């Protein structure tokens, strides 16, 4: 009797641990609103404010982002200008194609293509980012999530990792003008 109880308890424990490891997908947000459509939100001028934190949570840098966004049909250009708290500036120009609920993007410091999927109020991007040479030029895996808060506000959280080890998290709050 004790063996059956221990086996049942162990099974429940393992199921609980496995459930805690489940992966979140954009489909988990399919019923959430307002709906995130990159063509609608990232069209015109968008401002952002954010930070980069190391894996312990310490804030390493803060930034202000100004974006000019345009679309022609299902092809868009997101022109980002970053001003960092250490005085440096950076520019990234995304070229994005919408294909149904999926997005494909390229940028000068992105290795290959970024792949994105949107559902409900969320979008998940996955891509490899080549860091600037002054910080090593490493290629980092980016797991980039966006969630609409309201029709003018979007939250963006990105995990930066290499070989499965998290190195940093980036959080940006965007506001559409």
Which keywords apply here?
177 residues; ten-stranded antiparallel barrel; globular; 13% helix; 2 helices; mainly beta
Summarize the structure.
The protein has 177 residues and is mainly beta. It contains two helices and ten strands; from the N terminus they run ααββββββββββ.
Could you explain the architecture of this structure?
- The protein is mainly β.
- It is built from two helices and ten strands; from the N terminus they run ααββββββββββ.
- The protein has a ten-stranded antiparallel beta barrel.
- A hairpin with an 8-residue loop joins strand 7 and strand 8.
- The longest helix has 19 residues.
- It is globular, with a radius of gyration of 19 Å.
- It starts with a helix and ends with a strand.
- About 5% of the residues have low confidence.
Strand content: over 45%
Q: Identify low-pLDDT runs.
A: 12-19
Q: What value does the Rg take, in angstroms?
A: 19 Å
* Helix/strand class: mainly beta
Number of H/I helices:
2
The ordered H/E elements are HHEEEEEEEEEE
Name the shape in a single word.
Answer: globular
**DSSP strand tally:** 10
Mean pLDDT value = 91
Give the strand order, joined by hyphens, for the main sheet: 1-2-3-4-5-6-7-8-9-10
Share of helix among residues? 10-25%
End-to-end Cα distance = 67 Å
Largest sheet: 10 strands, antiparallel, barrel
How are the secondary structure elements laid out?
Elements: H1 2-20, H2 38-41, E1 44-54, E2 59-72, E3 75-84, E4 89-99, E5 102-106, E6 110-119, E7 122-130, E8 139-148, E9 153-162, E10 165-176
Antiparallel strand pairs: 1-2, 1-10, 2-3, 3-4, 4-5, 5-6, 6-7, 7-8, 8-9, 9-10
């Amino acid at each position: 009797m004790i063996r059956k109880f221990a086996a049942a308890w162990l099974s429940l424990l393992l199921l609980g641990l496995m459930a805690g490891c489940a992966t979140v997908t954009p489909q988990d947000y399919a019923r959430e609103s307002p709906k995130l459509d990159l063509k609608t939100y990232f069209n015109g001028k968008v401002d952002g404010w954010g930070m980069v934190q190391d894996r312990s949570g310490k804030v390493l840098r803060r930034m202000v982002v100004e974006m000019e966004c345009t679309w022609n049909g299902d092809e868009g250009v997101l022109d980002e200008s970053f001003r960092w708290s250490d005085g440096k500036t950076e520019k990234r120009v995304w070229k994005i194609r919408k294909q149904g609920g999926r997005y494909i993007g390229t940028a000068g410091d992105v290795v290959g293509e970024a792949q994105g999927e949107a559902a409900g109020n969320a979008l998940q991007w996955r891509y490899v980012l080549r860091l600037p040479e002054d910080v090593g030029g490493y290629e980092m895996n980016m797991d980039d999530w966006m969630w609409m808060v309201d029709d003018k506000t979007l939250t963006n959280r990105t995990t930066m990792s290499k070989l499965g080890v998290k190195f940093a998290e980036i959080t940006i709050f965007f506001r559409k003008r």
